[in-house]
Amino acid sequence: MDNRSQEFDRLGVSDWGGSGPPILLLHGLMGRGRAWAPHVDWLREYGRVFTLDAAWHRGREVTEAPDAQNMRTERFVADAADALEAIGSGPAIVIGHSMGGLHAWCLAAARPDLVAAIVVEDMAPDFQGQTTQPWDAWFDSWPVEFTDKSQVMGMFGEVAGNYFLDSFDRTDAGWRLHGEIVHWREVAQHWGTRDYWAQWAAVSAPALLIEAEFSLAPAGQIQRMAEMPRSGVARHVRVDGAGHLVQADAPEVYRGAVEAFLSEVLG
What does pTM read for this prediction? Predict the structure, then answer.
């Protein structure tokens, strides 16, 4: 393994190939970089595609002790910045789903030199006061190991089930959670303690905001993001009939919106 490959491995970066400007894909909470696989082929028409596995999403055996500081959004944003610096090749298109969308715009605000444009899929700036409590009993019911595909589909449904099958660790017995739910829960809990309007207002890069009809974002916030006065232009697309995983629930609509945006920003 050469030095570049070693550095990518350390950072959780995967190179999916292509040519042109770097495109960095950031997954959502409980996801993983390879869950973007259904979209890599067409994205390679616009640049060289990379994914990043966020901390605590890199496999159940890849452990890191959490504390109050390294579970903060700033830690994940710093990791994404390190990834782009290792990738090089100039400012990147950063495409993020949910948690990854938050990290995309916080990265664009903190390091405008690294980001040419962003796509934010179904994420909003303000979840203050919200916790994972309504979901905790369901999370606690998840087995660590899933023995067959039907078990995954029965728990999550077809759309989320296929997404998780792409994310989970593959084992001889089936599929295994690729991280600890207690860590994922801690990340989400942090969002309930603050908002990210200031970071959004600081983004100067062009942005595409994709909102699901059945969004997990608080009502009206993504529309407000699009309408806020900023130095960067924001396009807002609402996808009728889609749930939080727009990329999987309405893949052709998602692709069309992203391709139109990339064609515009890349000229």
Answer: 0.96
